[in-house]
Structures are given as structure tokens and as C-alpha cells.
Amino acid sequence: MKTLPTLEAICRACGGTFSHPSLGDFSYGEAVLCSVDGKGYATADAFSAAARHVRSTLATDDGRAFWTALAALADPMDGAALTATIRCPHCGSGDLASWGGRTTGTRDVPEARFDSDLFTPAVDRARR
């Protein structure tokens, strides 16, 4: 769990204002993933076992494709899949008029989970 600053964002689709967590400009190898309903957040590490697996299967070095794939393979949060883009918690849209605005506070953000057998070594699965 990390305590991250939250920044103001405005949704272009519904006009709603909301806060979203940010790692800042100097984060390396980490990203904040968002649930598709815009209500949950999780951090992801580009050097985790799941991330290494995703990187080894991608045919491109495109960072956007990497984070999109990693988010899609993460365990859902409260039943909602994760995405690599910020989503509005009012309407679920990813169409933002602005983001990264003024600091609005802080938020505890858990690490994304990857409990799928795809990421669990066969030895560990056999122990279950």
C-alpha cells in the first residue's frame, strides 16, 4: 500500500470533478492503474513477475501497449477490471478535459494483484 497525492481532474463527458492518485513526474517503472468504473486504483510495478511475463510476450516495446496489457491481466478490484487510463468515477468515461491539476489530498493505493495461474509458477500451484 502506498499513500499517494491526489490531483484534480475534470471529465469532459459529464463535467464532473474528481481526484485521482498520482505517482508524480519522477516515477520510474511504476504506474497507477484505474478500475474501468473509475472508483478504484492500484499501483503496478514494471519489474514484477507478472510484468516480466507481459513484456516477454509482447511483440512491441511500446510502453502504452505494455501498461494496457498489464492492466487487463490484473485481478479486478471489487468486480471491476483495471485499465491504464484515468476514468471518471461519476460516469466511467476516460475522456478527460483536464487531469493532474491542483493537489487535493492523499489516498492509500494498494498494489495491483495478479493471482492468475498464468503468473504462478507450476511448483507453487502444485503446493496448493
Low-confidence stretches: 122-127
What about the largest sheet?
4 strands, antiparallel
- Determine the fraction of residues in helical runs and give it as a percent range: 10-25%
**Strand residue content:** 25-35%
Radius of gyration, whole Å: 15 Å
Shape descriptor reads globular
Name the helix and strand elements from N-terminus to C-terminus, one letter apiece: EEEEHHEEEH
> Total domains, how many?
1
Number of strands: 7
Count of alpha and pi helical runs: 3
**Helix/strand-derived class?**
alpha+beta
- Separation, N- and C-terminal Cα atoms: 26 Å
Overall residue-averaged pLDDT value:
89
SSE topology sketch:
Layout: E1 2-11, E2 17-21, E3 30-35, E4 41-45, H1 49-57, H2 63-73, E5 82-83, E6 96-98, E7 103-109, H3 122-127
Question: How would you describe this protein?
Answer:
There is one protein chain. By secondary structure, the chain is an alpha+beta fold. The chain has one domain (2-118). The chain has helices at 49-57, 63-73, 122-127, and strands at 2-11, 17-21, 30-35, 41-45, 82-83, 96-98, 103-109. The strands form 2 sheets. Strands 1, 2, 6 and 7 form a 4-stranded antiparallel beta sheet that branches. Strands 4-3-5 form a 3-stranded antiparallel beta sheet, with helices on one face.
